[in-house]
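DM from R.C. (forwarded with permission)

"hey, sorry to bug you on a friday — could you get me a structure for this? deadline for the figure draft is monday and I only need the backbone to look sensible"
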Amino acid sequence: MNDGEPLISEGVTQGIVRIGDTVRRPLRPFSLTVQAYLAHLRDAGFDGAPLPLGVDEQGREVLSFVHGDAAGYPLPADDDVLVALARLIRTLHEASDGWVPPPDAVWGGTPANTGRITEPTELVSHRDYHPGNVIFRDGRPAALIDFDLAKPTTRLYDIANALWYWAPLRDPRDRSPALVNADIPHRVAVFVDAYGMTARQRTGLAPLAVDMVRRYHEDSRASAELDPVFHKLWEDGAKVYFPRAEVWVREAAPAITARLVQSS
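My reply, with the result:
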């Protein structure tokens, strides 16, 4: 029996292995819903995601292996990276638009925030642009992996999540060294321009980001009380950088909005 080559993950999913050009992952309640979504992306011509290959004889989810390098930290400061990621996400949104999930769809989530849908939505999308989920080729974002948090959402939320990691929307003390003194409103504008956001989306982005970071903080704290993996993430730094991010994003929001309106 080939147990495969373990794939090191910065996330919370254990037991992921590579066998040849496939990846085998533990089957979770939402896995088949995500496979249906990935099948739609394939059929829509989006080539920046794993191909869904069903379930193997050991009951594991099977996906195609996506070649390239996961971004990881420290993040690059190059504006061209933001442009490429924004265009990749725009292409994902265009491929996702119009897909209707199956009636029995099940979605993933954190221990404190399960996959229930409680807000208005526009489309299904990735919703977790952690650098470990963004695959680079030739120095630029080219594909996405780990669709565990995919579910119905809005374009604006999806963009705000990407910017949380990649602008990044963080206190300077919690950024990669090359981005400590970065002009974050400028970096947000570079991303927004490359995506092609509407005027309405531009005015709504910063207020949504303020609310998003607050909810991330609350969810992280609550999840730490429910799950040992999330407890470790909380103790390893989340309990420090989330409160700082809340304050920073709230104070930076007017300048971000001003820059986005100016560049529209």
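R.C.: lifesaver. The longest helix spans residues 228-262.
me: no worries. Strands lie at 5-6, 17-19, 22-26, 52-55, 60-64, 69-70, 123-125, 134-137, 140-144, 151-153.
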